[in-house]
Amino acid sequence: MTAWVAVSSFLFLSCSGSPPKILNTEWMIVYTYDQGRGGIYTEMDFFAQMEDEDGVEDISEISIRRDDQGWAWELTPDSWVSLTEDGETWIGANGMTLGGPLPGGDYRLLVIDRSGQREEHLFRVDDPGVAPGVYEFPRAQVQGNFIRIDAAGHDPVVLWFYNERGELVSEKYRSGGFYSRTELLEAEEEQIVSWFMIYFQDEERGFGLKSGPYLIREAEPLLEDTTLQDQASVSATSEDS
To answer: What count of Cα atoms within 13 Å lies in the side-chain half-sphere of residue 20?
Structure first.
């Protein structure tokens, strides 16, 4: 009997572990111009600094929930991004969207580890206060081996290059201008890149502007002048329509 109790206690202790801890959160509202469909939708980029005495790999589920509206974004190790730098681990995701406007208000972060222990954190998402009227989106145009970047007054912009599986291949910061592919991509990157997005983050006003996707392998005709046709200046009311 004594031996059975000792074994049972060991099993209980080995499964109990420590709950995850949420140390900090960061989020950014991103307005995205869909190059293919011609409309605007809103995304959230969200990351939380976390730790777990059993190791951050013990974290198994993360959800960002809007309880009053009954919906949530669910993240798993297969879908979230994990970044570790200077001893800090941040876990989250970019580009979470409802396919339209993103409501401001109170959100709840829920983190669960493999033993079922959980930690919660409430945070508030406010309208970043983009002035009504016009969003000036950075845009690009591709022909052959060249890419023209119209930064729309934003400098610098970042280009995210992806392969056909949607995996990030390369990240490049550039000003507006005309570039050959070899100026933007290494030879091995150029072989696997299929498309890219352009992004600008307004740190002062607290929002991002993104446009794309731009296909590398199915290029658009190049314009004669230095101004891109059909500027990505889309009325903010498009998002509410």
So the answer is: 30
